[in-house]
Amino acid sequence: METKPGMMPLLDGTEIPRYGFGCYASYGHEISQAVAWALECGYRYIDSAAMYANEKDVGEGLRLAGLDRKKVYILSKVWPKDYEVAANSAQQSLRDLGVDYLDCCLLHWPGTEEKRRLSAYEQLLRLKDQGLIRSVAVSNFQADQLERIKEVFGAYPPINEIELHPAFQQRELRQFCLDRGIALVAYSPIKRGAFMGDPRILSIGEKYGKTANQVVLRWHLERQQIPIPKSSHYDRIRENFDVFDFSLTPEETQLINSLECGGRRGNDPLTYNG
Ligand SMILES: NC(=O)c1ccc[n+]([C@@H]2O[C@H](COP(=O)([O-])OP(=O)(O)OC[C@H]3O[C@@H](n4cnc5c(N)ncnc54)[C@H](OP(=O)(O)O)[C@@H]3O)[C@@H](O)[C@H]2O)c1
């Protein structure tokens, strides 16, 4: 059994750690400290975004941890209202984070205007040519939008970061991505703690000495989707990463699969424009 996350190869020839740390909705020293703790615990992928309005603090956390830049996968995102100036937005993220390249930059949401979406993607590809971004990818994209990227730019985005957890499994979109080699990053992977008291997941956890959140995070790993749980508490950051020493049986996996109920937590990408 693996004892740490390992790397997942991507369509564009790069690779991404199989486990990440979310940075949404914490600010100042709290998120700097959380990022530093996460890196100390072994997380190697930091999921940031211009929209989170904390990239300077995230950058401070990277410096606090003091790891070699090449050892950390840093991902940021451009927000739809900035798609006309996507290159500027990504460069501002670089400055705020205090790094000289991003491992990955995503279009945060498809938005409702295709022309702006495609223009933003093209601008990020130019930054990739300049060596400022290693991978250009997307978040919250639907199958037809992924196809359109392939049609226009000749390749699928290597990553689609989408909401995924037992209550909202996006089975069709997930399969579409897996069939085409598009890596899935699972955001809100524990649905912000929604499964903590679920007796069915708790009873699986009891068998392994794990919490319900740990069981859900393990379920993600075994489905080849990269979870990026966020916490600002040291004990939870550690707990969420302590998922590499057990595996679920097919029956346990089946039970968690059966919790699908269309329970989306966030926005609907078909209508949301940022
Ligand atoms: N691309 C997108 O559109 C998009 C959208 C949403 C999120 N994201 C990314 O995905 C990351 C994770 O998603 P998320 O933040 O929405 O939700 P999440 O990771 O499922 O849950 C985070 C919440 O759960 C709490 N929590 C974390 N670990 C816990 C534990 N072990 N026990 C009890 N409570 C725990 C945290 O509180 P404390 O901090 O107080 O511990 C926080 O309120 C974000 O931070 C962001 O990087 C991306």
Automatic annotation (TrEMBL):
<dbReference type="InterPro" id="IPR018170">
    <property type="entry name" value="Aldo/ket_reductase_CS"/>
</dbReference>
<keyword id="KW-0560">Oxidoreductase</keyword>
<feature type="domain" description="NADP-dependent oxidoreductase">
    <location>
        <begin position="33"/>
        <end position="259"/>
    </location>
</feature>
<feature type="site" description="Lowers pKa of active site Tyr">
    <location>
        <position position="77"/>
    </location>
</feature>
<dbReference type="InterPro" id="IPR023210">
    <property type="entry name" value="NADP_OxRdtase_dom"/>
</dbReference>
<dbReference type="InterPro" id="IPR036812">
    <property type="entry name" value="NAD(P)_OxRdtase_dom_sf"/>
</dbReference>
<dbReference type="InterPro" id="IPR020471">
    <property type="entry name" value="AKR"/>
</dbReference>
<feature type="binding site">
    <location>
        <position position="108"/>
    </location>
    <ligand>
        <name>substrate</name>
    </ligand>
</feature>
<dbReference type="Pfam" id="PF00248">
    <property type="entry name" value="Aldo_ket_red"/>
</dbReference>
<keyword id="KW-0521">NADP</keyword>
<dbReference type="GO" id="GO:0016616">
    <property type="term" value="F:oxidoreductase activity, acting on the CH-OH group of donors, NAD or NADP as acceptor"/>
</dbReference>
<feature type="active site" description="Proton donor">
    <location>
        <position position="52"/>
    </location>
</feature>
<comment type="similarity">
    <text>Belongs to the aldo/keto reductase family.</text>
</comment>
<protein>
    <submittedName>
        <fullName>Aldo/keto reductase</fullName>
    </submittedName>
</protein>
